From TrEMBL:
The gene is fdhD. This is Sulfur carrier protein FdhD. The keyword Cytoplasm applies. It holds the Pfam family FdhD-NarQ. Required for formate dehydrogenase (FDH) activity. Acts as a sulfur carrier protein that transfers sulfur from IscS to the molybdenum cofactor prior to its insertion into FDH. Gene3D superfamilies: 3.10.20.10, Cytidine Deaminase, domain 2. The active site is at residue 111. It is found in: Cytoplasm. Belongs to the FdhD family. Keywords: Cytoplasm, Molybdenum cofactor biosynthesis. InterPro entries: Cytidine_deaminase-like, FdhD. It comes from Nocardia albiluteola.
Length: 288
């Protein structure tokens, strides 16, 4: 299997002079996903948990709805210059043949669509809308989740070049963590884990990411029935619009004990008095 890190020569320039030494980098390689022998897409990813990635991607694109829709997932033969299998082509055999068109790939095509069209696409395609009610999560519990996620980023410690996505219970238990050079791949991997563990729709789980909350990440949460997304960094306008449309709780700038809540405040149990919240939101934005 491919390695997730690699060593490369590097010259570090400092005020005290130059230092030449090897550096540990995150591996980035293409993964071609095939469905029933036909090429579906190619994504640049960090090798590892490719089966999870494939399942999460197919769920996010509404091609499958459960793990039972997949008969098999196997690597195809492909070798490098040394004759070693590259493990960069994965073929998914579906139980029922699917009609797939490029319109299924909203994250690839949405750049040419207006905001309303993108929102309508997700709303009509999602199988698992977030639940109207719970889970209810304490603001202090949610605020602590990014630190837990960070402590489980094993490869990030050596490279500093990976995003992470984690699934938590409402009481703050971290169930699964996946890392990848692409934030969307990290989310697909952890959603794929949930699918294979028969936890989709994930109505009782919270998705936390080490990146910003972009439209595509909110889309993936909605497609998996996840009711809450917490992000360490900022949220985009279209991400907020989709979260509001889908009744998904969206929290951004979740760090340092504060956060910005853009939608779904009814799922957050707050320790502070309601009148103090606007000031907390403003300070969180200023700190971002």
């Amino acid at each position: 299997m491919s390695r997730v890190t690699a060593r490369r020569k590097m010259v570090r320039i400092t005020p005290g002079g130059q230092i030449q030494r090897p550096d540990t980098l995150t591996v980035e390689e293409p993964l071609e996903l095939r469905v029933d022998g036909r090429s579906l897409t190619v994504t640049m990813r960090t090798p590892g948990n490719d089966i999870d990635l494939a399942h999460g991607f197919l769920l996010s694109e509404n091609i499958i709805g459960s793990a039972q829709d997949v008969l098999s997932a196997r690597y195809c033969a492909g070798t490098d210059a040394d004759g070693q299998n590259t493990y960069n082509v994965l073929d998914i055999q579906l139980r029922t043949s699917a009609t797939i068109s490029t319109r299924n790939f909203l994250t690839n095509s949405s750049c040419g669509l207006c905001g309303k069209t993108a929102l309508d696409e997700v709303r009509t395609r999602s199988r698992f809308a977030p639940p109207t009610a719970g889970p209810i999560v304490g603001s202090t519990v949610l605020a602590a989740m990014p630190d837990q996620l960070r402590s489980r980023q094993a490869v990030f410690e050596s490279t500093g070049g990976l995003h992470a996505a984690g699934l938590f219970t409402a009481d703050g238990v971290l169930l699964a963590v996946r890392e990848d050079i692409g934030r969307h791949n990290a989310v697909d991997k952890v959603i794929g884990w949930a699918l294979l563990e028969d936890r989709i729709p994930a109505h009782d789980l919270i998705l936390v990411v080490s990146s910003r909350a972009s439209f595509e990440l909110v889309q993936k949460a909605v497609m998996a029935g996840i009711p809450m997304l917490g992000a360490v960094s900022a949220a985009s306008s279209l991400a907020v619009d989709l979260a509001v449309e889908s009744d998904l709780t969206l929290a951004a700038f979740v760090r340092g004990g504060s956060m910005n809540i853009y939608s779904g405040l009814h799922r957050i149990r707050q320790a502070a008095a309601p009148e103090s919240l606007p000031g907390q939101y403003d300070s969180a934005r200023a700190g971002g």
